[in-house]
Amino acid sequence: MDTRPYMQDSAAEEFFSRLERGEFQTTRCSGCGKIHYPPHVVCPSCLGEDMEWVDLPRDGTLLAFTQQSDAIRCRMPDVLGLVELEGIGNVITRIDAPLEDLCIGMKVTFDTWTSHDGVALHQFRPL
Ligand SMILES: [Zn+2]
Questions:
Q1: Distance from Cα 85 to the centre of ligand 1, integer Å
Q2: What is the chain's Cα-based Rg?
Q3: Which of 20, 99, 100, 109 has its CA 20 to 30 A from that of 61?
Q4: Which of these, 89, 81, 63, 84, lies nearest to 125 by C-alpha position?
Q5: Taking the model in full, what pTM does it have?
Q6: 44: cis peptide before it, omega within 30°?
Q7: Over the range 49-78, which residues count as b (16 or more CB within 10 Å of their CB) and which as e?
Q8: Which CATH architecture has domain 57-127?
């Protein structure tokens, strides 16, 4: 049984393959130079199809967080956060820290983790 996350397109599939190797990357349009997260097969800005993979920032700022008590893929309870990646945008991600150790505006850094069903996913933890 394929337990990988739902893949919207080949860019999403490549994103998760790169995560398995510890790479945190997205696509940049070779035509207009814009970087988009999540990655795209076609540039949403200019509709160009020549995309290249570039590194995302590994450090970010925690904008919001919560604890979920019911989830399919995560162990419960699990902490989720909204992390700002400077110059890129925001990513919703697992946060590897207890809720009581977090505060809005704190710096966090990228890491990977493997879900109980063997899927490599991203997470952030406090610096
Ligand atoms: Zn473009």
A1: 20
A2: 15
A3: 20
A4: 81
A5: 0.85
A6: no
A7: eebeeeebeeebbbeebeeeeeeeebeeeb
A8: Beta Barrel (2.40)
d(CA 58, ligand 1 centre) in Å: 23
Dist. CA 64 → ligand 1 center (Å): 30
Residue range 5-51, pLDDT digits in tens: 566 789 999 999 999 999 999 999 999 999 999 999 999 999 999 99
Give dist(CA 10, CA 52) in Å, integer. Answer: 13
Cα of 43 from ligand 1 centre, angstroms: 5
Ligand 1 centroid to residue 88 C-alpha, Å: 15
What does DSSP assign to residue 10?
H
